[in-house]
Amino acid sequence: MLYFVKTLSWRIGYACLMSALEGSNTMSKAKLGGRFTFPGTSLTVHRIGYGAMQLAGPGVWGPPKDPDGAVAVLREAVAAGVNHIDTSDYYGPHVTNRIIRQALGPYPAGLVIVTKLGGRRPPDKSWQPAISPEELTAGVHDNLRNLGLEALDVVNYRVMGSGHGPEEGSIAAQVTVLADLRRKGLIRHIGVSNVTAAQVAEAQAITDIVCVQNNYNLAYRHDDALIDDLARQGIPYVPFFPLGGFTPLQSSTLSNVAGRLGSTPMQVALAWLLHRSPNILLIPGTSSVVHLRENLAAGQLTLSPETLAELDGIAAEPVPD
Q1: 154: which strand partners?
Q2: Where exactly are the structural domains of the chain?
Q3: May I ask the CATH class of domain 41-249+279-288?
Q4: For residue 236, cis peptide bond before it (omega within 30 degrees of 0)
Q5: CA-closest candidate to residue 44, choices 57, 35, 54
Q6: pTM of the model
Q7: How far apart are CA 146 and CA 247, in angstroms?
Q8: Handedness of CA 72, 85, 197, 268 (dihedral sign)
């Protein structure tokens, strides 16, 4: 009974909060980097979203050390205007999606949840491919069940490859499975992740691709040509590890620019991505409300052409030991 009362209490409070926010004008689109609509869809999101991977426990395994804190981060993000959340059911596994459902369900109108398939987490905590038709289908049903949804807004096929960089090889079989699940109404839209330009083209020959998610940041710019090509097609590019991931960005240039602007280096790195191309959508992750607020504030940071040119040079700097 106590659990029921507590659950009812936070749901009522959350509903009141969302109602108040929907009736206010405090969440200007400029605050979160502007808006972008996924091509061929009615899904419009602010350009700064939220990546939920860090809500799971250490090593993206098991429950978080602070479950209440994880819920608070999600609610703070949505209260601030975030309407694009990136997740996967193999985070935890199953943990992150359940936290999202607990924190945000019933989901507010306009919230876009993007998940991904293609991986699994066995008991040894490793990251392994899960790419058979049976595994992909089971992954869709796991996401639906743990998120509490009847259909998934966007599903990215994540090529596990070698670490966090793409490698060539056909993905036609896996994309075809997702296209079939889309026809069955379980998936609304399809994207790809950790892919090469050739794999993007291969996927597009099978079905409409509404987003591409790859590793990209100030220091790792292998996808410059791909970003520009996708921009011409109106397709969003969503960089994972926009702040360097497990090895945070370190650069004296970045630190110096941040000091001049009165911002943090990570805010400048996010602002640079927003300036890099209008089709870039951000999903920085964190398990801290304070850090979340810092990330979202990057949308208000303006970088001059001179500053952008200075930051562009970071990709040529030697990697710190």
Answers
A1: 114, 189
A2: 41-249+279-288
A3: alpha beta
A4: no
A5: 35
A6: 0.89
A7: 30
A8: negative
> In one letter, which amino acid is 214?
N
Determine if the peptide bond prior to 239 is cis (ω within 30°): no
Is-catalytic flag, 91? yes
CA 262 → CA 88, 142, 259, 299, distances in Å? 35, 44, 5, 14
What is the DSSP code string of 229-295?
HHHHHT--EEEESTT-TTS----HHHHHHHHHHTS-HHHHHHHHHHHH-TTB-B--B-S-HHHHHHH
Average pLDDT over residues 161-189: 93
Do 265 and 254 form a contact (C-beta atoms < 8 A)? yes
pLDDT for the residue numbered 163? 66
Asked if residues 3 and 271 have their Cβ atoms less than 8 Å apart, the reply is no
Query: What residues contact residue 100 under an 8 Å CB cut-off, 6+ apart?
Result: 52, 55, 74, 85, 87, 113, 147
Chain position carrying tokens 């993206």: 60
Residue 318 pLDDT > 90, yes or no? Answer: no
Counting every residue written for the chain, the total comes to: 321
Helices (H) and strands (E) in the chain, counts: 11, 11
Q: Is the dihedral of CA 54, 191, 102, 106 positive or negative?
A: positive
Q: Which of 14, 90, 91, 220 is catalytic?
A: 91
Instruction: State which H helix or E strand residue 307 sits in.
Output: helix 305-312
